Amino acid sequence: MKGAIVLSDAASTVSPTYAHEITTDPELGFGLEGVIRDKGANFAGILNGADYDEWNPANDRDIAATYTPAKPGGKRKCTRALRDSLKLPIHEDWPVVGMVTRMTGQKGVDLLRDALDAVMRLDLQLVMLASGDEVLEKFFKEAEKRYPDKLRAIIEFNSPMAHRIQAGSNAFLMPSRFEPCGLTQMYAMRYGTAPVVRATGGLRDTVREFDPAKQTGNGFSFDKFDANEMVAALGRMVATFRDRAKWRALMANCFASDFSWERAARQYADWFMRLRKVRGLS
Question: pLDDT value at position 278?
Fold first, then answer.
């Protein structure tokens, strides 16, 4: 990889913030931060795109009811169906928080483990679809028994269930230690599901803190990899959920967020044209 970077005309990675992080943080640069910095302006961070053909609540065959930004009523049916399928009690005033992730420390699942008791004291229900680290898998399966009305941990890979969680959740948790780009937060917003993320890598580039007064922003974020900060962000989400008008505004902002491959392709095309001009090519 080092040789490829050194010999290339240019190099790129999958988000602007991650591009900055891997040139300034040795833990994230993995020893390549120097050669990447040497690329100068010829190193770019361009966000990945989301596949809106597969991840689209308007035509998703895996969910209980389809819906659109103009007619979002089907989302409530999806939430009820998700709760029913997992035998979670119906609490209309509690948001369902989804997670679809690898069960690893990089994804911040250990941070959630450390904060789980505090998270469970909030008025919410948490649905996890994850697999990976056996110690973490065992912890969350055992935690289900302590919180039978509030937690479900599905330890498997299950693509249809991933779609049902995106559609049936009100919020989507991604407490990543680092995240080059992230796609599931993009999918979540397409489904009108508000991300709650650690502001790192592509998560910082795609999620903006919701401002209840201005009704701007498309989610909730926290800066430090810290359990208290994560719980506080979830608390802000729960408080916003209680105000239906503000939550509808937040959902509208999520629906309006555009992370299509058309957007990403245009950025790549512009970058290629700039590189050609630098090389003196027509």
Answer: 79
Is this model's pTM higher than 0.90 or not? yes
Q: Rounded to an integer, what distance in angstroms lies between the CA atom of residue 13 and that of residue 42? A: 11
Superfamily of domain 74-256: Glycogen Phosphorylase B; (3.40.50.2000)
Do residues 174 and 180 touch, judged by C-beta distance below 8 A?
A: no
**Residue 280: its pLDDT value, please?**
67
Ranges in the chain, pLDDT < 50 = none
Show the DSSP H helices in the chain as ranges: 2-7, 16-24, 26-29, 33-37, 74-86, 109-120, 134-146, 159-168, 184-190, 201-206, 227-241, 244-256, 261-278
pLDDT value for 234: 98
What sign results for the dihedral spanned by CA atoms 154, 157, 159, 162? positive
- Cα–Cα distance, 195 to 203 (Å, whole number): 9
Domain layout of the chain by residue ranges: 2-49+260-278, 74-256
Phi, psi at residue 156, to the nearest 5°?
-175, 170
Residue 281: per-residue pLDDT = 60
Q: Are strands 43-45 and 194-198 parallel, antiparallel or unpaired?
A: unpaired
